[in-house]
Amino acid sequence: MPTAQTPVTAEPAQSPEIPPERRTEETPGREGPMGKVVHLHTAHPRVPIPYLTPGDMFTGAREAAPRLPSMRKLTYYGILGGMAVAGVLEWPVAVAIAAATEVITREQGAQSRAGQAAESRPQPGAGPSVRTEGARPQAATG
Q1: Is 24's pLDDT higher than 70?
Q2: Residue 112 and residue 108: Cα distance in Å, rounded?
């Protein structure tokens, strides 16, 4: 025969009572309408949140555009990466090919810029300058 069980209620833990003259808003364990009230103090750091406008985003995009690689390079590296993902190339080989390509491209660009700078400089002795023409002695006619 089943017996009826009576619910067991737990007695709240007794904490030492704070004398009324020492109780403040910050004192934990203050009595409220719902029982004991505990106040937690949290830190709220001031973090500046930037306000971005569409104009700011377009300006940033215009400044970043010259730093991006050309469409031809992006396509090349994309195909190289795709081949590595597909398993046609091992990834260390793909990285080596990409690094070698970048080094060669930069070296060729540096040589090209150096050649253009050398061509634009005036060559010494290539032609008379204003200073040398004025410094020549005039031949006496007579």
Answers
A1: no
A2: 6
Distance CA 1, CA 140 (A): 149
How is 44-111 classified by DSSP, letter by letter?
A: ----------HHHHHHHHHHHGGGSPPHHHHHHHHHHHHHHHHTSS-HHHHHHHHHHHHHHHHHHHHH
**Separation between Cα atoms, residue 80 and residue 117, nearest integer Å:** 34
DSSP structural state of residue 128 = -
Report the Cα–Cα distance between both ends of the chain, in Å, rounded: 154
Q: CA 82, CA 15: separation in Å to the nearest integer?
A: 68
pTM over 0.70: no
| Burial of 76 per CB tally in 10 Å (0-12, 13-18, 19+) | middle
